[in-house]
Amino acid sequence: MDASRDEEYIDFGMAFQSVMVEHLNGVLTEKGVEDEETRREICETFLSGLGDFFDQHWLERDGRRVHPVLAFAEHHLDVETPLNDVGHVMFPAPRFAHREYVFGTLADFYEEHEETTPGVATGSVHEDDDGHYDDGVPDEW
Fold first, then answer.
1. What is the mean pLDDT of the chain?
2. CA dihedral defined by 118, 113, 110, 7, rounded to 10 degrees?
3. Which CA distances in Å does 101 have to 1, 10, 27, 79, 91?
4. How many CB atoms lie within 10 A of CB 134?
5. Helices (DSSP H) in the chain: which residue ranges?
6. Which of 70, 98, 135 lies closest to 14 in space, CA to CA?
7. Which residues are registered as beta bridge partners of 72?
8. Does residue 87 contact residue 74 with C-beta atoms inside 8 Å?
9. What is the pLDDT of residues 39-53, one digit of tens each?
10. What's the DSSP call for residue 91?
11. pLDDT mean over 63-82
12. How far apart are CA 40 and CA 21, in angstroms?
């Protein structure tokens, strides 16, 4: 495993925020929050709080304190994956602050792209390159 803290992280950090906004916006719409401004304010409040948590807070359990870090790896870290097999890992760039990028992410999502995330794709680790799903369970038992 090798790691970096460079500018490449910024694009992935904003993409992560976009995916969070798209999901939360969809849930709010599905649950009857029709007003776009209300959905946007809720998304801003949620993402700003999450950003603050990543940027400036710690978490303690049973006397052990840790600091949250959002990183992106080339390969999926499964329960059986040795840490060295995740490939390159990107940690936040020195000038990246999760909370500071929230406002640009929201503007892109609501104003520039009409509640979509163009250029950002997500998928399951169980999908192949053609989009076929494989849950690891044989078709025949």
1. 91
2. 50
3. 28, 9, 22, 32, 16
4. 10
5. 8-30, 36-56, 98-107
6. 98
7. 90
8. yes
9. 999 999 999 999 999
10. P
11. 94
12. 9
Instruction: Map tokens 């906004």 to a residue.
Output: 21
Residue located via tokens 């509640």: 115
Q: What is the pLDDT of residue 126?
A: 79
Provide the sign of the torsion angle of the four alpha carbons 29, 44, 56, 81, taken in this order: positive
Amino acid at 56: Q
Of 62, 61, 54, nearest to 13 by C-alpha is 54
Q: Collect all residues with Cβ–Cβ distance below 8 Å to 28 and sequence separation of at least 6.
A: 38, 39, 42, 43
At 93 the three-state DSSP class reads: coil
How far is Cα 133 from Cα 101, in angstroms, rounded to an integer?
A: 33
Confirm whether pTM is higher than 0.70.
Answer: yes
Partners of 65 in the β-ladder? 60
Helical packing angle, 8-30 and 98-107, nearest 10°:
60
